[in-house]
Amino acid sequence: MPKQKIFGLLGLLIPIIFNASCGRNIAKESQPQEFDAVKFKPVPSFTNRFSFCPKTKDLHYLNATWASAISHLVEVSDHDALYWYNKYGFEKIRRFNIASTGTQADWLENEDLVILVFRGSDEIRDWLTDFNILSRTLPGIGRFHKGFANAFTSLWPSLEPLVYEAKNKPMWVMGHSLGGALAQIYTAYHVALASTHAELLPILQGFYSFAAPAPLSQETKTILIDYLERNSIPHYQFFNPFDPTPKVVPNYKNLGIPIVFEENKKVILPNRAHDITLYFNTLAHLALQKVQEPCDSTVYQSVDTLD
User: Fold this and answer.
1) Residue 261 β-bridge partners
2) In the predicted model, what is the mean pLDDT of residues 216-243?
3) What is the pTM of this model?
4) Taking a C-beta distance cutoff of 8 angstroms, is the pair 202, 166 a contact?
5) Contact, 280 vs 65, CB < 8 A?
6) Strand boundaries in the chain, DSSP class E
7) Over pLDDT 90: what percentage of the chain?
8) What is the domain-level CATH number for residue 208?
9) Is residue 176 part of a domain?
10) Per the domain annotation, does 12 fall within a domain?
11) Is the Cβ–Cβ distance between 249 and 216 less than 8 Å?
12) What is the pLDDT of residue 127?
Protein backbone atom coordinates (compact mmCIF):
# COMPACT_ATOMS: atom_id res chain seq x y z
CA MET A 1 0.00 0.00 0.00
CA PRO A 2 1.32 3.46 -0.86
CA LYS A 3 1.98 5.70 2.10
CA GLN A 4 -0.50 8.55 2.68
CA LYS A 5 1.18 11.91 2.21
CA ILE A 6 0.61 14.52 4.87
CA PHE A 7 -0.69 17.72 3.26
CA GLY A 8 -1.50 20.57 5.61
CA LEU A 9 -1.88 18.41 8.69
CA LEU A 10 1.24 18.24 10.76
CA GLY A 11 1.60 14.77 12.19
CA LEU A 12 -2.13 13.95 11.94
CA LEU A 13 -3.84 11.52 9.57
CA ILE A 14 -7.51 10.71 9.38
CA PRO A 15 -8.21 6.97 9.27
CA ILE A 16 -9.39 6.01 5.81
CA ILE A 17 -12.21 3.48 5.61
CA PHE A 18 -13.91 3.01 2.26
CA ASN A 19 -17.32 1.69 1.26
CA ALA A 20 -16.67 -1.00 -1.33
CA SER A 21 -20.00 -0.49 -3.11
CA CYS A 22 -20.09 3.20 -4.01
CA GLY A 23 -17.07 4.94 -2.53
CA ARG A 24 -16.90 6.85 0.73
CA ASN A 25 -18.56 10.23 0.95
CA ILE A 26 -15.88 12.30 2.67
CA ALA A 27 -18.15 15.36 2.64
CA LYS A 28 -20.22 13.61 5.30
CA GLU A 29 -17.57 11.65 7.13
CA SER A 30 -14.60 13.98 7.59
CA GLN A 31 -14.41 15.33 11.11
CA PRO A 32 -14.23 19.09 11.75
CA GLN A 33 -10.65 20.11 12.45
CA GLU A 34 -8.61 23.26 12.67
CA PHE A 35 -7.02 23.94 9.28
CA ASP A 36 -3.30 24.48 9.53
CA ALA A 37 -1.34 26.48 6.98
CA VAL A 38 -0.49 24.26 4.03
CA LYS A 39 2.93 23.84 2.48
CA PHE A 40 1.44 23.80 -1.01
CA LYS A 41 -1.59 25.86 -2.00
CA PRO A 42 -3.30 24.33 -5.07
CA VAL A 43 -4.39 27.68 -6.52
CA PRO A 44 -2.31 29.56 -9.14
CA SER A 45 -0.93 32.81 -7.77
CA PHE A 46 -2.53 34.87 -10.55
CA THR A 47 -6.17 33.97 -9.82
CA ASN A 48 -8.61 33.60 -6.94
CA ARG A 49 -11.13 31.36 -8.65
CA PHE A 50 -11.33 27.84 -9.94
CA SER A 51 -12.10 27.99 -13.67
CA PHE A 52 -12.35 24.89 -15.80
CA CYS A 53 -13.48 24.75 -19.41
CA PRO A 54 -15.22 21.35 -19.78
CA LYS A 55 -15.89 21.54 -23.51
CA THR A 56 -12.61 22.87 -24.85
CA LYS A 57 -11.26 21.06 -27.90
CA ASP A 58 -7.73 22.39 -27.55
CA LEU A 59 -4.76 22.24 -25.20
CA HIS A 60 -5.90 24.54 -22.41
CA TYR A 61 -3.09 25.34 -19.99
CA LEU A 62 -5.34 26.58 -17.20
CA ASN A 63 -7.38 23.37 -17.40
CA ALA A 64 -4.12 21.43 -17.21
CA THR A 65 -3.00 23.49 -14.21
CA TRP A 66 -6.15 22.66 -12.29
CA ALA A 67 -5.92 19.03 -13.40
CA SER A 68 -2.42 18.80 -11.92
CA ALA A 69 -3.68 20.34 -8.67
CA ILE A 70 -6.48 17.77 -8.46
CA SER A 71 -4.00 15.01 -9.30
CA HIS A 72 -2.15 16.08 -6.15
CA LEU A 73 -5.25 16.41 -3.95
CA VAL A 74 -6.20 12.77 -4.58
CA GLU A 75 -3.01 11.93 -2.64
CA VAL A 76 -3.71 14.00 0.49
CA SER A 77 -5.74 13.44 3.66
CA ASP A 78 -9.54 13.41 3.64
CA HIS A 79 -9.74 16.68 5.50
CA ASP A 80 -7.42 18.62 3.21
CA ALA A 81 -8.86 17.13 0.02
CA LEU A 82 -12.41 17.97 1.12
CA TYR A 83 -11.37 21.52 2.01
CA TRP A 84 -10.04 22.19 -1.48
CA TYR A 85 -12.65 20.20 -3.40
CA ASN A 86 -15.31 22.30 -1.69
CA LYS A 87 -13.37 25.44 -2.58
CA TYR A 88 -13.39 24.29 -6.20
CA GLY A 89 -17.18 23.94 -6.07
CA PHE A 90 -17.62 20.17 -6.12
CA GLU A 91 -20.68 18.92 -4.26
CA LYS A 92 -20.58 15.14 -4.73
CA ILE A 93 -17.23 13.80 -3.55
CA ARG A 94 -16.40 10.10 -3.25
CA ARG A 95 -13.09 8.45 -2.33
CA PHE A 96 -12.16 4.90 -3.23
CA ASN A 97 -9.46 2.70 -1.76
CA ILE A 98 -9.41 -0.96 -2.73
CA ALA A 99 -7.54 -2.78 0.02
CA SER A 100 -6.53 -5.78 -2.09
CA THR A 101 -4.62 -3.71 -4.66
CA GLY A 102 -4.17 -0.28 -3.07
CA THR A 103 -5.98 1.33 -6.02
CA GLN A 104 -7.30 4.76 -5.07
CA ALA A 105 -9.38 7.38 -6.87
CA ASP A 106 -11.58 10.41 -6.21
CA TRP A 107 -14.88 11.14 -7.95
CA LEU A 108 -15.74 14.87 -8.07
CA GLU A 109 -19.07 16.09 -9.37
CA ASN A 110 -21.27 19.17 -9.49
CA GLU A 111 -24.15 20.12 -11.77
CA ASP A 112 -21.76 21.17 -14.56
CA LEU A 113 -18.86 18.75 -14.48
CA VAL A 114 -17.49 15.35 -13.45
CA ILE A 115 -13.80 14.75 -12.77
CA LEU A 116 -12.40 11.28 -12.15
CA VAL A 117 -8.86 11.36 -10.80
CA PHE A 118 -6.68 8.36 -9.97
CA ARG A 119 -4.01 8.39 -7.32
CA GLY A 120 -0.34 7.85 -8.10
CA SER A 121 2.06 5.70 -6.13
CA ASP A 122 5.41 6.10 -4.42
CA GLU A 123 5.94 2.41 -5.08
CA ILE A 124 5.45 2.32 -8.85
CA ARG A 125 8.05 -0.42 -9.27
CA ASP A 126 5.87 -2.76 -7.23
CA TRP A 127 3.72 -3.02 -10.38
CA LEU A 128 6.66 -3.85 -12.60
CA THR A 129 7.61 -7.37 -11.50
CA ASP A 130 8.25 -9.98 -14.16
CA PHE A 131 4.80 -11.45 -13.45
CA ASN A 132 2.84 -8.20 -13.58
CA ILE A 133 4.55 -6.91 -16.70
CA LEU A 134 2.78 -9.63 -18.70
CA SER A 135 -0.22 -8.45 -20.67
CA ARG A 136 -3.85 -8.95 -19.75
CA THR A 137 -6.64 -8.84 -22.30
CA LEU A 138 -9.97 -7.45 -21.10
CA PRO A 139 -12.55 -8.76 -23.60
CA GLY A 140 -14.15 -5.98 -25.57
CA ILE A 141 -11.92 -3.39 -23.89
CA GLY A 142 -8.31 -3.96 -24.96
CA ARG A 143 -4.94 -5.41 -23.95
CA PHE A 144 -2.97 -3.84 -21.11
CA HIS A 145 -0.01 -4.18 -18.77
CA LYS A 146 -1.24 -6.85 -16.36
CA GLY A 147 -0.36 -5.10 -13.10
CA PHE A 148 -2.14 -1.88 -14.10
CA ALA A 149 -5.13 -3.80 -15.49
CA ASN A 150 -5.48 -5.76 -12.24
CA ALA A 151 -5.34 -2.52 -10.26
CA PHE A 152 -8.09 -0.94 -12.35
CA THR A 153 -10.42 -3.94 -12.50
CA SER A 154 -10.35 -4.19 -8.69
CA LEU A 155 -11.90 -0.68 -8.60
CA TRP A 156 -14.35 -0.86 -11.49
CA PRO A 157 -17.27 -2.61 -9.70
CA SER A 158 -17.26 0.17 -7.07
CA LEU A 159 -16.87 2.94 -9.62
CA GLU A 160 -19.38 1.74 -12.22
CA PRO A 161 -22.60 2.88 -10.46
CA LEU A 162 -21.36 6.48 -10.24
CA VAL A 163 -20.49 6.46 -13.94
CA TYR A 164 -24.06 5.58 -14.89
CA GLU A 165 -25.57 8.04 -12.41
CA ALA A 166 -23.69 10.90 -14.11
CA LYS A 167 -25.00 10.27 -17.63
CA ASN A 168 -24.75 13.16 -20.09
CA LYS A 169 -22.52 15.30 -17.86
CA PRO A 170 -19.18 16.52 -19.22
CA MET A 171 -16.41 14.32 -17.80
CA TRP A 172 -12.63 14.69 -17.57
CA VAL A 173 -10.27 11.88 -16.54
CA MET A 174 -6.79 12.44 -15.12
CA GLY A 175 -3.99 11.16 -12.92
CA HIS A 176 -0.31 11.39 -12.06
CA SER A 177 2.21 8.56 -12.28
CA LEU A 178 0.38 5.26 -11.61
CA GLY A 179 -2.81 7.34 -11.57
CA GLY A 180 -2.13 8.42 -15.15
CA ALA A 181 -1.85 4.78 -16.23
CA LEU A 182 -5.16 3.93 -14.54
CA ALA A 183 -6.83 6.96 -16.14
CA GLN A 184 -5.87 5.54 -19.54
CA ILE A 185 -7.46 2.19 -18.72
CA TYR A 186 -10.64 3.93 -17.58
CA THR A 187 -10.66 5.78 -20.91
CA ALA A 188 -10.51 2.41 -22.70
CA TYR A 189 -13.48 1.18 -20.63
CA HIS A 190 -15.43 4.34 -21.40
CA VAL A 191 -14.77 4.09 -25.14
CA ALA A 192 -15.84 0.43 -25.20
CA LEU A 193 -19.06 1.16 -23.29
CA ALA A 194 -19.82 4.19 -25.46
CA SER A 195 -19.81 1.99 -28.56
CA THR A 196 -23.03 0.31 -27.39
CA HIS A 197 -24.82 2.72 -25.02
CA ALA A 198 -23.21 6.16 -24.99
CA GLU A 199 -26.52 7.74 -23.94
CA LEU A 200 -26.17 6.12 -20.49
CA LEU A 201 -22.69 7.53 -19.79
CA PRO A 202 -21.12 10.86 -18.93
CA ILE A 203 -19.79 12.61 -22.03
CA LEU A 204 -16.04 12.10 -22.12
CA GLN A 205 -14.62 15.56 -22.82
CA GLY A 206 -10.92 15.17 -22.12
CA PHE A 207 -7.99 13.25 -20.68
CA TYR A 208 -4.76 14.40 -18.99
CA SER A 209 -1.94 12.28 -17.61
CA PHE A 210 1.19 13.46 -15.82
CA ALA A 211 4.42 11.42 -15.77
CA ALA A 212 2.54 8.18 -16.37
CA PRO A 213 4.10 4.77 -17.02
CA ALA A 214 2.74 3.21 -20.23
CA PRO A 215 -0.15 0.73 -19.75
CA LEU A 216 -1.52 0.14 -23.29
CA SER A 217 -0.73 -2.30 -26.06
CA GLN A 218 -0.13 -0.67 -29.44
CA GLU A 219 -3.41 -1.99 -30.87
CA THR A 220 -5.40 -0.68 -27.90
CA LYS A 221 -3.75 2.74 -28.18
CA THR A 222 -4.59 2.86 -31.90
CA ILE A 223 -8.28 2.15 -31.21
CA LEU A 224 -8.43 4.82 -28.50
CA ILE A 225 -6.65 7.46 -30.57
CA ASP A 226 -9.07 6.84 -33.44
CA TYR A 227 -12.09 7.33 -31.14
CA LEU A 228 -10.70 10.42 -29.41
CA GLU A 229 -9.70 12.10 -32.66
CA ARG A 230 -13.00 11.31 -34.41
CA ASN A 231 -14.85 12.88 -31.49
CA SER A 232 -12.45 15.84 -31.08
CA ILE A 233 -11.66 14.88 -27.48
CA PRO A 234 -8.47 16.52 -26.12
CA HIS A 235 -5.95 13.95 -24.88
CA TYR A 236 -2.56 14.96 -23.57
CA GLN A 237 0.30 13.39 -21.65
CA PHE A 238 2.57 15.82 -19.81
CA PHE A 239 6.04 14.63 -18.92
CA ASN A 240 9.58 15.61 -18.09
CA PRO A 241 11.94 14.02 -20.66
CA PHE A 242 14.49 13.39 -17.90
CA ASP A 243 12.00 11.54 -15.66
CA PRO A 244 12.47 7.78 -16.17
CA THR A 245 8.95 6.81 -15.01
CA PRO A 246 7.17 7.17 -18.40
CA LYS A 247 9.80 4.85 -19.90
CA VAL A 248 9.97 2.13 -17.24
CA VAL A 249 7.47 -0.24 -18.89
CA PRO A 250 8.92 -1.65 -22.12
CA ASN A 251 6.70 -2.66 -25.04
CA TYR A 252 3.68 -0.66 -23.85
CA LYS A 253 2.36 2.71 -24.99
CA ASN A 254 1.02 5.90 -23.42
CA LEU A 255 -2.17 7.56 -24.59
CA GLY A 256 -2.19 11.26 -25.36
CA ILE A 257 -0.40 13.89 -27.41
CA PRO A 258 2.98 14.32 -25.67
CA ILE A 259 3.61 17.73 -24.09
CA VAL A 260 7.18 18.31 -22.93
CA PHE A 261 7.81 21.19 -20.54
CA GLU A 262 10.06 23.38 -22.64
CA GLU A 263 10.62 27.09 -23.15
CA ASN A 264 12.95 28.25 -25.91
CA LYS A 265 13.82 24.58 -26.45
CA LYS A 266 15.00 24.22 -22.85
CA VAL A 267 13.32 21.92 -20.35
CA ILE A 268 11.92 24.05 -17.51
CA LEU A 269 11.31 21.30 -14.96
CA PRO A 270 14.07 20.32 -12.54
CA ASN A 271 16.16 17.41 -13.77
CA ARG A 272 14.35 14.06 -13.31
CA ALA A 273 11.43 15.87 -11.61
CA HIS A 274 8.46 13.58 -11.02
CA ASP A 275 6.59 15.31 -8.19
CA ILE A 276 3.14 16.55 -9.27
CA THR A 277 3.53 19.85 -7.38
CA LEU A 278 6.40 20.73 -9.73
CA TYR A 279 4.11 20.01 -12.67
CA PHE A 280 1.49 22.31 -11.11
CA ASN A 281 3.96 25.17 -10.68
CA THR A 282 5.27 24.76 -14.22
CA LEU A 283 1.79 24.61 -15.77
CA ALA A 284 0.69 27.67 -13.78
CA HIS A 285 3.73 29.49 -15.21
CA LEU A 286 2.79 28.43 -18.74
CA ALA A 287 -0.88 29.32 -18.22
CA LEU A 288 0.17 32.83 -17.25
CA GLN A 289 2.45 33.11 -20.30
CA LYS A 290 -0.05 31.61 -22.78
CA VAL A 291 -3.16 33.63 -21.97
CA GLN A 292 -6.23 31.83 -23.33
CA GLU A 293 -9.75 33.14 -23.56
CA PRO A 294 -12.34 31.33 -21.43
CA CYS A 295 -14.77 29.21 -23.43
CA ASP A 296 -18.55 29.58 -23.27
CA SER A 297 -18.91 26.57 -20.97
CA THR A 298 -16.28 27.60 -18.41
CA VAL A 299 -17.19 26.61 -14.84
CA TYR A 300 -16.22 29.26 -12.30
CA GLN A 301 -15.93 29.02 -8.52
CA SER A 302 -14.37 31.64 -6.24
CA VAL A 303 -11.47 30.26 -4.22
CA ASP A 304 -11.07 32.39 -1.12
CA THR A 305 -7.84 32.63 0.84
CA LEU A 306 -7.32 30.13 3.65
CA ASP A 307 -10.00 30.31 6.34
Assistant:
1) none
2) 95
3) 0.86
4) yes
5) yes
6) 49-52, 92-98, 103-109, 114-118, 135-138, 142-145, 170-176, 203-210, 235-239, 257-260, 262-263, 266-267, 299-302
7) 59
8) 3.40.50.1820
9) yes
10) no
11) no
12) 58
